[in-house]
Amino acid sequence: MTQIKPGSKIGILGGGQLGRMLAMAASQLGYRCHIFCPDVRSPAFHVAADFTIAEYGNEDALREFAESVDVATYEFENVPARTAEIVAQETILRPGAKALEVSQDRLVEKDFLNSCGVKTAPYKAFETQEQLDAAYKEIGRPSVAKTRRFGYDGKGQLMIKARKDIDGVMDVTKGAPSILEGFVNFDREISVVVARSASGDVAAFPVGENVHTNHILDTTTVPAQISEVIEAKAKVMATRIANALEYVGVMAVEMFVSDGSGEIVVNEIAPRVHNSGHWTIEGAATSQFEQHIRAICDLPLGPTEARGKVVMKNLLGKDILDFETYLSDPKAYYHHYGKQDPRDGRKMGHVTWVNTDE
Ligand SMILES: Nc1ncnc2c1ncn2[C@@H]1O[C@H](COP(=O)(O)OP(=O)(O)O)[C@@H](O)[C@H]1O
Ligand SMILES: [Mg+2]
Questions:
Q1: Which of 218, 242, 339, 348 is the most exposed place for a label (fewest CB within 10 A)?
Q2: Are 289 and 311 in contact (CB under 8 A)?
Q3: Which residues line ligand 1 (CB under 6 A)?
């Protein structure tokens, strides 16, 4: 496997906060980053050596970008297949195209997970009203209708609690390929952030417990309130998925846990560093961002243990303006992503507490 030594150049597709924190971690290890993003105001540009402002369909710009770097990676899973293909023609792309293909489409993803022997919620694909009615007959309620592609933070989803809720589904999916999936009556949501290096070494971080508010991640707490057996099982599942994808880099696997039965159902995978792994920056021996750089450059993976009890909270919209509070708290680590407009619900930053009960 090709090792990319410190001092080399790393290309990152996507210029949001994940790209920004990747570039910061890369820089500590002596790498320079080149960010590719169509948005002029990308927060990752602030901390990178080079940037390109161009559309993901601009093949000339993509080739020039890819030729300028020693390895390329991405910070979002909706990188178009053609974009990934062009970059992979000119440089090493890690993770590879398979991870994108699987994670971009909820149906392909669920089929893949089941083929790995990992349990998911029951699901059925539909597009038309007739297919939806047939899917509803099979899956029943409560259930969740979700578009197969481009959903995030609960967008493109509708909960079916009562029979009449079915009538609203086509308004949400608008005839796009979708799935109806059975609702999982879970006790808690967890995620496993796992790294696999180009040489095939695997290291999982301690499992995080996630609380969502309005479909957006609010907090991640480590350790998760789960038994050692469930913690171990969850890591084994994430490792199996990473190996099956021949994955290179950091990925997150979101899971639902039922305390009584101890059953774990995999919800979705994200082929990238993940919001539920931000706690690792100060809360773990190695941050997920550094771990991703180590993995794609084929360096030894870092130790993953937590430094104690850790809580990460997202700062959405105007929450970010409260910096005095966090900066006055000796146990808090305040992160501002450098975005200008604190729109409601927008991820503006986060704060992490290490070894405090707040
Ligand atoms: N089948 C389900 N059963 C129970 N809760 C669900 C189910 N699917 C989604 N949810 C809830 O909605 C959230 C968002 O759904 P998810 O499939 O992760 O979509 P997104 O891509 O928007 O993150 C989940 O984190 C979970 O809280
Ligand atoms: Mg999700």
A1: 218
A2: no
A3: 121, 144, 151-154, 181, 183-184, 189, 212, 215, 254, 267-268
With respect to CATH, is domain 122-182 assigned 3.30.1490.20?
yes
Q: What is the pLDDT of residues 315-327, one digit of tens each?
A: 999 999 999 999 9
Q: Give the ligand whose atoms come closest to the C-alpha of residue 106.
A: 1
C-alpha distances (whole Å) from 86 to each of 38, 68, 149, 232 are 17, 13, 22, 39
For a ligand 1 pocket test, name from 150, 212, 267 the mutation site with the most ligand atoms within 8 angstroms of its C-beta: 267
Domain range list for the chain: 9-93, 122-182, 188-308
pLDDT of residue 88 exceeding 90: yes
CB 313 within 8 A of CB 219: yes
Distance in angstroms between the alpha carbons of the first and the last residue of the chain: 44
CB-based contact 351:326 (threshold 8 Å): yes
Note the ligand closest to the C-alpha atom of 265.
1
Q: How many other β-carbons are positioned within 10 Å of the β-carbon of residue 97?
A: 14
9-93 has which fold? Rossmann fold (3.40.50)
User: Domain 188-308 is in which class?
Assistant: alpha beta
Lookup result for tokens 């992160």 = 335
